[in-house]
Every structure is written in C-alpha cells, then in structure tokens.
Amino acid sequence: MTAQATRQSVPGRLRGTKALLKGLSTYLWPGSQSFRMSRDSTDYARYCYSVWLRHLVLAYENGLRSYPKVILELGPGASLGVGLAALVAGADRYYGLDIERGVDAVRDLGVFDRLVELFRRREPIPGREEFPLVQPSLESWKFPAFVFEDGSLERALVPERLHDLRLQVARCEQGCSDLCYVVGSNAGQNIPEQAVDFVISQAVMERVKDLERAYRTIAHWLRPGGFSSHAIDFAEPLTSIFWNGNWARSDLIWGLMQGRRASWSNREPHSTHIQCMNAAGLHILTDVVSKDRGGLPRERLRARYRSLDQEDLLTRSAYILALKPAAV
C-alpha cells in the first residue's frame, strides 16, 4: 500500500471530483431511517450532534490525537448540522459538498443555536433510545470530555467566535469562508490537495456511482495523517420489504426504479468499499459491520450477487474508518 494516493493531472482530478459529486446523494435525512421525526431545528441539532460525536469518538479511539481543523462532509442533505457541530466544537473550516441543494439556511440558524446549547451543557451523545438505527454505535454515550481535555471546547465557545460563525451560517452559499457549502457537479474542484483533516459521510457512499474514483478523490483531499470516516447502508428500503431486495432486481428494473432521481443506490457490497479504499492508499483502521439474516436467500438474488461471499451477503451496514498514512 502506498503512503500517498496516485497523483493525477489537473484535468484528471477535476473529472474525478465531478464523478464523485455526480453520484453523491442529496439524501434528505431522515428519509432512510425507519423512525419518524419532525423537521424542526431541535431534531436536526440532536441528530447531527450525535452523528458528529460518534464519528469523532471512534477516530480518537483509533489514533486521532488532536481535534480536526478542516472538515469535509459529503452529501450533507437537508442540514449542515454535522459540519456546524464540528465548527462549534473547534474546527476552523468546513466544506459541505452536495449534488443538489437541500439545506434551509434559516432552519440551520436554529440548528446552530441548539448545537451551541448542547455543547455548553456537555450533553450526553443521543444514542440507541433516541436514534435506534443510526450508525456507528458506541460503547459509551457519555459526553466525550477526553476529546477536549486541553480546554479547547471552552476556547471554541467564546461568544465572539460563535457570533462570527453564526453570521457565516446565514451566508453559507455566498462564497467560501470558514463555512463553505457548495452544490453541483463541480463543487469540490477548488478544494486544495492535502488540505483536509477529516472527511465524513453518513449514508452517502452507497449512492456514489464510481467508488474507485470517489475514494481516490477523498485520498487526494486528505492530508497525510488525515481520517476518512463513513457510515454506509447497503439496503434500499424504498424498493423492497427485504433489506437486500435491491440485489434481486435486474439492471433494467433497477434503472426504471431510479427514474429521474439524481441519487440512487450503487448496489455495491461491503467488500467493494474496502477494496476501493485500499486501492486509493487508505489504511483501514476499523471496520464494524452490522449483519442481518432476514434478507432474501442467495438463490433469489441476481446472478452477480449470488456469488457474494457469506460476509457480504449478510452485511446490511458498516462503519469504516480509514487513515491516509503519513508520507515516508
């Protein structure tokens, strides 16, 4: 495994970025979840607070030793709340990249205010009782004070800094600043190489069409020593009563089901993501899979999925944390 992702020409990198963003979901949370929630600021704030801290805690448990300063989120969907949580708690810059606009800036101002309250109270991480299907899971839902032992949270929550961040939420689409939300197939083209400390996605990578190029682009953005953190759902609940019903459809039927949707499941199994990460030079730190034996049996799947090994066949979701190794 190489320490650096293979360098590409500038046109090649731009094509890679376009391909990544073309497949990214607008994935309007919480459409993929089986629980019902209102779309008010409090719900979004608690969900996004939970998602950010889950990814952050697992990164710390696997070698992250300082709070990441530059965050990139793929497919934020209906709210920039994950990025706002990262910024409120001490990040310097956030990039949110999506293929279509889904964010409501007015609602996100409310999300921002509630996130500030959650961090000021050192609120425990909302866990299984509140969000039973959200991954990744943790062993402890206590507020992760160990992440902020150096007093960094107190410094992050000073009123002057929060006031400046809140102003940026209101104008997040008016140009790149500390909070940069960009929509479209070219959204990531201006992100410098090796500029990002932490790439995060939540139920997005299963909708990226060219996974090999996507993970190569992520490796291009990450600095050496940066982390790539992904919760991936291999089910498509809108198309079958069985979690793996998507693997029983022909390509023709699957394309008809997609229709005009810009975002649709790529139907790639867990092993494909691992292979593509390895090919991009990313080192897998943790790979936690959730298995489900309640899907369709092997003989009822299409031919290319009948050949999956037993691990892939039973893996309904996964949390994968990877590191871009430091240069040697």
Can you tag this structure with a few keywords?
328 residues; 7 strands; alpha/beta; disordered N terminus; seven-stranded mixed beta sheet
Order of helices and strands: HHEHEHHHEEHEHHEHHE
Structural class: alpha/beta
In spatial order, strands of the major sheet run: 3-2-1-4-5-7-6
Number of domains: 1
Outline type:
globular
CATH topology: Rossmann fold
Q: Output the CATH class name.
A: Alpha Beta
Q: Termini distance?
A: 12 Å
Whole-number mean pLDDT: 87
Number of strands: 7
How many H/I helices?
A: 11
How much strand?
15-25%
Q: Catalogue the unreliable spans.
A: 1-37
Protein architecture, described:
The chain is an alpha/beta fold and 328 residues long. It has one domain (10-323): Vaccinia Virus protein VP39 (Rossmann fold), CATH 3.40.50. It is 35% helix and 16% strand. It has eleven helices and seven strands. The chain has helices at residues 10-23, 41-61, 81-88, 105-120, 152-156, 159-170, 211-221, 251-258, 270-279, 303-306, 310-314; strands at 70-74, 93-98, 179-183, 196-202, 222-233, 283-291, 315-323. The protein has a seven-stranded mixed beta sheet with strand order 3-2-1-4-5-7-6, with helices on both faces. Helix 3 (81-88) links the parallel strand 1 and strand 2 (93-98). Helix 1 crosses helix 7, helix 2 crosses helix 3 (81-88) and helix 4 (105-120) packs antiparallel against helix 6. It is globular, with a radius of gyration of 19 Å. The model is unreliable at 1-37 (pLDDT under 50).
